[in-house]
Design goal:
The protein is an alpha+beta fold. It has two domains: 237 residues, q2cbj1_9rhob like domain (Jelly Rolls), CATH 2.60.120; 93 residues, no CATH class. The chain contains 13 helices and 13 strands. Strand 1 and strand 2 form a beta hairpin. Keywords: Dioxygenase, Iron, Metal-binding, Oxidoreductase, Vitamin C. InterPro entries: HIF_prolyl_hydroxylases, Oxoglu/Fe-dep_dioxygenase_dom, Pro_4_hyd_alph, Pro_4_hyd_alph_FE2OG_OXY. This is Fe2OG dioxygenase domain-containing protein.
């Protein structure tokens, strides 16, 4: 990896990133994004390929984290954060169902950029994109957008979900930076990852912790938070997305022709997603109720989830996948490398 590291340093030095913000916070320290260039290592690349996620602690200096945090709180004080809502799509109509206590803002908004200039500068900075693209050449990242978030901390949470789908947009990696200097065990607000076929993983929202994971293939949720919790999410997109993985109906057609072996079936992205939905069915239902306290909203989401779960179960049975425990064990033994996640 020595040659790769030299290549990375040369690429960054040649101007593939924006000029850094240099807002002074303390006399002895300035806001800087330079540390991102050395924060990503071969070990993080390997974790992304093998597990679909990686955790990096201590990415920024104290002044930078302090400024990020100050800007999010300032957005709150200026009433520039809005309540997050789940979009429930039915036919040609979309119903917005608010999540309790989750407030956010898109940094693509010019007003937000003006009120949070350092976070906006980080959105323009290309260091993280450059580093990850060099370590993951099959994933040439091109653009990033940031959403800031404030969780009020009275049990507010997110249900199980994927951040996007490969048939919907070009986002491929999610990076969450946590900004909670006083967080302690028991405060809640952890991110729960569900890297099926493996067991769930809990990531604490520790201050200056960067969590990176697969946008379209990592099932996850935010556990109920019992105190105020700050973070911002960076979504990184590719310029020319590969074709989306085949749908369950396309997989069924292929299997009918006898062109799909059992292990190949379990390597299909949509089959794995369907199995994850059914394996975590009860937890998914519970998370919908926790995140949407209005009875009408949670009932609508539960009905929608149950309808989708029923379709998934029928599709899996049509593919001959009836024993989920056996499927999980076989899938865990497959050597798929990065193809499972990226």
């Amino acid at each position: 990896m020595t040659a790769l590291r030299r290549c990375i340093q040369k690429t960054i030095a040649s101007g593939h990133r924006c000029v850094h913000a240099t807002v002074s916070v303390q006399p002895q320290e300035q806001v800087s994004f330079d540390s991102v260039a050395t924060a990503i290592t071969p070990a993080h690349r390997q974790a992304l390929l093998e597990k679909g996620y990686t955790v990096i602690d201590g990415v920024f200096n104290a002044a930078t984290c302090q400024t990020f945090r100050y800007e999010i709180l300032s957005l709150r004080d200026q009433s520039l954060l809005h309540l997050n809502s789940t979009h429930l799509v039915k036919g040609n109509s979309t119903r917005l169902l608010p999540k309790h206590g989750i407030y956010e803002a898109e940094v693509a908004d010019k007003a937000i950029q003006g009120a949070a200039p350092v976070i906006a500068a980080f959105q323009r900075d290309r260091t993280l994109l450059t580093m990850l693209s060099l370590y993951l050449p099959s994933l040439p990242l091109h653009q990033q957008l940031i959403k800031v978030q404030l969780n009020k901390g009275d049990g507010s949470c997110f249900p199980l979900h994927y951040d996007s789908d490969e048939s919907v947009d070009s986002r491929r990696l999610t990076a969450i930076l946590y900004l909670n200097p006083d967080w302690r065990e028991g405060d809640g607000g952890e991110l729960q990852l569900y890297p099926w076929p493996h067991a769930p993983v809990t990531v604490a929202p520790l201050h200056n912790r960067l969590l990176i994971f697969s946008t379209c293939r990592m099932l996850h949720r935010v556990l109920p938070s019992r105190r105020e919790r700050l973070c911002f999410t960076t979504w990184m997109s590719v310029l020319k997305p590969r074709a989306a993985p085949p749908s369950l109906s396309q997989i069924h057609q292929k299997s009918q022709s006898g062109a799909l072996a059992a292990d190949a079936l379990l390597a299909e992205v949509e089959v794995r997603k369907a199995l994850a939905m059914l394996d975590f069915r009860e937890e998914w239902q519970r998370s919908l109720q926790q995140s949407h306290r209005a009875e009408a909203g949670s009932r609508a989401l539960l009905d929608d989830f149950e309808a989708k779960a029923g379709v998934m179960q029928q599709a899996l049975e049509a593919l001959g996948v009836r024993d989920r425990q056996e499927a999980r064990q076989r899938a865990a033994g497959l050597c798929m490398g990065g193809s499972a996640w990226l």
